TrEMBL record, chains A, B:
It is found in: Cytoplasm. GO terms for molecular function: methyltransferase activity. Keywords: Cytoplasm, Methyltransferase, rRNA processing, S-adenosyl-L-methionine, Transferase. Its main location: cytoplasm. Residues 75-243 form the Ribosomal RNA small subunit methyltransferase E methyltransferase domain. Its EC number is 2.1.1.193. It catalyses: uridine(1498) in 16S rRNA + S-adenosyl-L-methionine = N(3)-methyluridine(1498) in 16S rRNA + S-adenosyl-L-homocysteine + H(+). One of its GO terms (biological process) is methylation. This is Ribosomal RNA small subunit methyltransferase E. Pfam families: Methyltrans_RNA.
Amino acid sequence: MQRYFLTNTITTTVDSVFELTGESVHHWLKVMRAQPGDQAEFVTRNQQVVIGKLLSSTTTTAQVAVQQVTTPQVELPLQVLIACGVSKGDKTEQIVQRGTELGAAGFIFFDSQYAVAKWATNKRERKLSRLVKIAQAAAEQSHRTVVPTVSYQANLSTLVQQVSYDAGIVAWEESAKQGESSQLVQTLNKMQPQQRLLAIFGPEGGLTSTEVSDLNQVGVVSAGLGPRIMRAETAPMYLLSAVSFSQELV
Amino acid sequence: MQRYFLTNTITTTVDSVFELTGESVHHWLKVMRAQPGDQAEFVTRNQQVVIGKLLSSTTTTAQVAVQQVTTPQVELPLQVLIACGVSKGDKTEQIVQRGTELGAAGFIFFDSQYAVAKWATNKRERKLSRLVKIAQAAAEQSHRTVVPTVSYQANLSTLVQQVSYDAGIVAWEESAKQGESSQLVQTLNKMQPQQRLLAIFGPEGGLTSTEVSDLNQVGVVSAGLGPRIMRAETAPMYLLSAVSFSQELV
């Protein structure tokens, strides 16, 4: 069933009626060609999933009757914030799309010293709003109840100051080369449900040793993610899968 | 350092000289513009990594002196065979590229009932040889010592007959929806190093319940990979990351 995220707060008692507004109306009525009586899923702002039936519509609003309400547990037990150096081409989009499917709570893109790409200041807002749309579409498709946040930080120092987190790791190739293989497990073992894990990844060019040691100084630990070298957009997928495996399956 | 896979068997004692042939010669001499004295890494057929120095060359061969030999442990402890329904667009290429970075031992593509794409018989060999090249390039970049195999099977029944494996799982959305979350862990716990895990994934359209029950009948167990719905090309990445995490980091 088609799924939409609601931006307004609604009453979720069965048989109550709410008004759907915004882009979802256009998608449901025009793209999906919904007719009165047709159903869709609507995710409320407090992560309930409402099955709603179309009653009537105008070109910009739809009246929807609440038919069933559930509270599925589909979010990762830890809130994982994926921080990545800005990368070339569609890599940032891939990170957001796949990372959303894999349960990330948010994405932070930052400029770094070895980055081969930069976001021009005048294009930054447009890039971020495109990534927000990708996150929303991926959240709908993967049946999540939360749309991950997407934001930007000028560099790693401001990032660790501005972002709140309970534990932080930085994926660093040099750690992996030296055989470091226990920090991720140790970090995950220490964490409590709903705590925030900040996971930092370099751009294609990697991070500088200064960037990494500055992170280490504020308590962000270097962690190896296995002995193979992964590309910039693959490493966050590894991390999110590992968090899901260890927290949801083991 | 640039890395090449050798197709011929060489003597790996230090200071011995071997002849490099094939496409690697062209890449090293013409693309990388190697000069006498320059070094590269060469992976032997028994997974040793040789640092070699260019002595001299013709247009089709290069004489290389062995300088150093190591046997790095960068392969997954389990041999994971990723079997995927044929998918549209560049999804098969993405599965091979990313799956190679994440340590897959091989890829098998199969035709299935709900597949929205088919490989025309006359194009199959060309597609497979393109995927083999992608696997080789990704293996070089991720510093692996084995190039994964790539093959095709007409359907799931012939696949499970033709492919040898010690344990098999099929990722099935319906299992995940019913809250199945222990089969992957149980399967991994049972396996011994170097055993072969066959992991089967549907195409975009999913597998039919008949295809899944036929697999279950031959001992391939349905396994949930967490509560979120993943696209066809994301699920194999989850599985490979989970195998690495559980076998290489925990």
